[in-house]
């Protein structure tokens, strides 16, 4: 497997330039910037209205509630409200940008020309991945950057470390789905096959993972004789095999509740509170469920699909 850094750079630059020439992708980038800015303005406006109404009220209880809310309604609260949208929008954007990165050029015949320049197959796939990753992450990070000034201007307490962590985790989620899409595009014989596989994975990760992971957990529980604590840890580990769930759990740590509450939030409701209490009494989270471990899982979701796609691409007869 021959990877030439200069060749990778050339392919990356070409792929990025070709991608940003597309009006659809420029529109997509604009949507991200406008969305994050508008969401920040809306949050700040609602925050200010709440404080104004509380200040104008003669109700002592309402004023005390407003003081407590002012302490809690920081930029972290804004980020928590975004998670439901970013977990769906960012992966979908990465898929749209990347699903035809390799197989599209193979079907059009331009891939043979690209490989004859000469660029190795490994350099081509890696360059495609880096180029499409830039197309996805630049608008995402720019959108977050545009939203930053809104908070101090509106008087909303701004937490820079939490904001930066959320932005980087969201960008990494985009890179994960670029890797999945480019890897699938490299391995698939046709664009239609690539779309079917990628959309199927997107549906599994965003819609069906609860049922799927519960079924896997039940099968493993039947095979293993686990204690109550080990059973909870296994359930959480299976839930976190999904990159979207891993992202949700990771960014939930931005809030004041911390790692333990963020992990058990994937269980939900009263059962999640019981699980958190049991784990707390047993000594807390295992190493493989910490924030650092979750970042490693996301990085593995970049490396493994891309590597498998490249191995399949190396064996394809073009």
UniProtKB/TrEMBL annotation:
Transmembrane helix listed as a keyword: yes
Keyword Oxidoreductase recorded: no
Transmembrane segments: 24-44, 77-102, 129-151, 163-182, 194-212, 292-313
Keywords: Membrane, Transmembrane, Transmembrane helix
GO function term, MF aspect, one: ABC-type transporter activity
Cellular component per GO, a single term: plasma membrane
Domain of life, per lineage: Archaea
Protein name as catalogued: ABC transporter permease
